[in-house]
Write a structure and sequence with these properties.
By secondary structure, this protein is α/β, with parallel strands linked by helices. The chain is built from 14 helices and 15 strands.
Length: about 450
């Protein structure tokens, strides 16, 4: 993804490397429609919190579901983000209306008084909806999710769901409350909703016991937003959020979580420890904040099996986004959607003509369940633990030490500012030369 627009487009169009599951669905009794909607009609009101490229795409996909969905509120820290998002969604709905008897633009009903900005606007937007879409930078996800569940709303939230262990614990606590309230929660780990991955998962036993796995997210990297005159440090970091750990989690968390989540899903568990290496070899300018440009992590699971994981943001290098499982009887090649035995004989090949767009499917299934008054989705716990997997890997690469899951998740490490205000100082600030402190393996300590 090069920028917000291309990120949005790539999700809508869906490049085949995606993946996904049905494994986290929870069957539960039906509940009365009164538990799901505020109002007498069947309209499902949604609020969008986070109006960047992914928020724009997610809201559009929600509106394109077959249910009677209406966007009624929007919130973002920045008004220009909100306005750009509103125009993009409106244009998309107008395009969808072309040649049809239905006017899709009527699904957008966000007057000026329901457009909220600043750090606290999310609370007002959430209060107006039945379903909340959370798509801000992931550092804010724990407090936004907590508020949505406290207000009794169904949730679609993007991955990752936190950037530090304190945030993970907050999400896990809110996930437990969501289950008690029977609130549907879908996390944007869209491989769980992709036909090819669902079919591979059904047949994973063909390769016997999984003894090792490999995962890759290697590509050129993403956008950079240069500092502008008269920005406060908080605004600059919020605008250039990808390069600050408290906001993004580093690219091992923001992107590579997809691959790590697939491994966890097929393994049916989470790593118990990790060790690895990483650094900044190319992407090391002042605008690149504090994150690494490459990570390699060896994760170990409770049964002794190993995941070798790599992610890299360096232009001109090999690009690969994929997962591979090696079992006692064969292999699963996720990108090729193929299962082979140890001699190379194909045991299963997914028919690509039946592939779907999982970014759309996750919304189609969520809103169909809500419209029927069903409690079906409880993705938050897995979303939190797969996010924690990526954080565990980051701790390992930043420190160069073996890091254990239990110590890491219970460490209470909290990277966030005590005050959210444009004039407040973020957790990290540049030195006199404009460079930010960067983790040094062998020196940096975490747990």
């Amino acid at each position: 993804m090069k920028n917000d627009a291309s990120a949005n487009a790539s999700r809508r169009e869906f490049v085949k490397q995606g993946s996904l599951l049905a494994g986290g669905l929870i069957a539960s009794p039906l509940f009365s429609r009164a538990n799901f909607f505020a109002g007498a009609d069947d309209t499902i009101k949604i609020a969008l919190v986070g109006c960047g490229g992914r928020g724009t795409g997610a809201a559009t996909q929600a509106l394109l579901s077959k249910q009677n969905v209406k966007l009624v509120a929007m919130a973002d820290a920045f008004r220009d983000n909100l306005d750009r998002c509103y125009q993009s969604i409106s244009s998309e709905m107008e395009n969808e209306s072309a040649g049809k008897s239905v006017n899709m633009k009527t699904r957008i009903d966000v007057p000026e008084e329901r457009k909220f900005t600043g750090f606290d606007g999310y609370k007002k937007a959430i209060a107006l909806a039945d379903v909340v879409i959370l798509a801000t930078p992931p550092g804010f996800r724990p407090i936004h999710f907590e508020e949505a569940i406290a207000q009794g709303k169904h949730v679609f939230m993007e991955k990752p769901v936190a950037t530090d262990p304190a945030g993970i614990q907050k999400v896990l606590a809110s996930a437990a409350i969501a289950k008690e309230k029977k609130l549907n929660v879908v996390v944007g780990l869209q491989r769980h909703y992709q036909n090819s991955y669902r079919e591979l998962f059904k047949r994973k036993d063909l390769i016997g016991d999984i003894t090792s796995a490999q995962a890759w997210w290697n590509n050129d990297g993403v956008w950079v937003r240069p500092r502008k005159y008269n920005q406060t440090e908080m605004e600059y970091q919020m605008r250039n959020w990808y390069y600050f750990v408290w906001l993004c989690g580093d690219h091992i968390t923001e992107q590579h979580i997809h691959n790590l989540d697939v491994i966890n899903w097929f393994k049916g568990g989470y790593p118990v420890k990790a060790q690895g290496m990483g650094g900044r070899q190319v992407r090391k300018g002042k605008d690149h904040g504090e994150i690494f440009d490459h990570h390699y992590v060896e994760f170990q699971y409770a049964d002794g099996s190993i995941l070798n994981s790599q992610c890299r943001h360096i232009p001109g290098t090999m690009s690969k986004v994929d997962e591979l499982f090696v079992g006692t009887k064969g292999k699963i090649q996720c990108g090729a959607a193929r299962i082979t035995d140890n001699s190379g004989k194909v045991l299963y090949q997914f028919d690509t003509k039946t592939e779907n767009n999982p970014y759309q499917t996750e919304h189609d299934e969520l809103f169909a369940a809500i419209a029927k008054g069903e409690y079906k989705f409880a993705d938050a716990e897995n979303g939190a633990k797969s996010t924690m997997t990526s954080i565990l890997g980051r701790f390992a690469t930043y420190s160069g030490q073996v890091v254990e899951w239990d110590k890491a998740i219970n460490s209470e490490i909290d990277l966030h500012p005590k005050i959210y205000d444009w004039d407040a100082l973020p957790p990290v600030v540049p030195n006199a030369d404009g460079f930010y402190p960067v983790a040094v393996p062998g020196v940096t300590k975490f747990v």
